[in-house]
Amino acid sequence: MKKAYKYRIYPTKGQQEYFTKTFGCCRFVWNKMLAEKLSDYEKGEPIPRITPAKYKEEFPFLKEVDSLALANVQLQLEKAFRDYFKNPKHFGLPKFKRKKDKQSYTTNNVNGSIKVDFEKGLLYLPKIKDGIKIELHRTFEGQIRSATVSKTKDGKYYVSILVETEEPRNKVMEPKSKACGIDLGLEHFATITNDFGTYKVEHPKHLTRAEKRLKKLQKDLSRKQKGSKNYEKVRQKLAKLHAYISNARNDFLHKLSKAIIDENQVVVVEDINVKGLMQSNLAKSISDSSRSKFLTYLRYKAEWYGRTLIQVDKFFPSSKLCHCCGYKKEDLALHERIWTCPVCGTAHDRNVNASINLYLVGLERPEVKPGCGRRRGEHALVDDRIPYGIPKKPSCVEAGSSTFYKVE
């Protein structure tokens, strides 16, 4: 199995110049090949297979950069055309690249051309004689297959190293809870129910908190002359703020998903129609929360740590079912945050009720000991559930997260 490890690198001025040259050559070759392919495609002729070697005689500066990086550009462009012809509704035609777009290139490990010195903290790449300083916050074992060097808009450099490993799983911890139900809501980021109780996670609202500062910087940028030094200074500040928001959001999602996966053997979430929500008036809130990315993190971490992740159908009535008696409230509206069951008289917070119903689904899995939980059709009886016992704070609470609190 292949796993990627991403690190921050600190290239020297000379190494930065080489990266800039390689980024530019890869972009140049992509645009040249794309122009020829599109020209023949528009004429109805077969799309030619072009190699970067075709341009090296006319443009000798292409010989100064890593040839494997240019070869990967060819493979990426060919894949983009294959994807388009296979599913034109989902994939569009490849587009020309601009200098202000993401800058990156990929090179392959041939005869040990890519090396990492963990003792000295150095990375060795083709065409770079001296090692590049790298921040190795974690180690890896396995054969290096490729490395992708990228530069963010705020001027930072990163490398993503793809490693072939026999053991894809990380160090596995013994789960504290048998199952966990997660309801991703609107008022709160998530409502989580496990063997120890129900907890609510507040929305971190990284974008909302930085919105005032973003507006000021965008206004300042619009008043600068494009291409001037002052324009570049403000653009850098704006890029750094966007990078901070993105990093803070990813940090929150990684820590929360890791805590959930560590503590629960079975994790149950609803399949969310993120695309539909993005077309509503909730688009800004949904985008700031990055729910789709959160589910992605849960998915691959469950695989790494030997957990079971279940995504129930989006039409499963988790909010409408009374988790005590199984009554289904068919006419439950979205604005009704609290409702009372007419059969057993239990008052329900819709998010808490949904998370408990998802938790009960998790108890039915074979990974959980037999007899811990059962469901008859859509009914979930209170006697079918294991007792919560003494409430135990999750690890993210012990770490001091101010966004995580228990529902009494």
Query: From the helix content, strand content and strand pairing, which structural class follows?
Result: alpha+beta
Query: Overall 3D geometry?
Result: globular
The H-and-E topology, N to C, reads as: EHHHEEEEEEEEEHHHEHHHEEEHHE
Strands of the biggest beta sheet: in what spatial order? 2-6-7-1-5-4-3
Spans of at least 5 consecutive residues with low confidence = 370-405
- Count of β-strands: 15
How is the biggest beta sheet arranged?
Answer: 7 strands, antiparallel
Strand content: 15-25%
First-last Cα distance: 44 Å
Helix segment count? Answer: 11
Helix content: 25-40%
The average pLDDT score comes to 84
Give keywords.
globular; single chain; seven-stranded antiparallel β-sheet; about 400 residues; alpha+beta
Describe the structure.
The structure is a single chain. This protein is of the alpha+beta class. It has eleven helices and 15 strands. A seven-stranded antiparallel sheet has the order 2-6-7-1-5-4-3. It has a six-stranded mixed sheet with strand order 12-11-8-9-10-15. It has a two-stranded antiparallel ribbon with strand order 13-14. The chain is globular. The model is unreliable at 370-405 (pLDDT under 50).
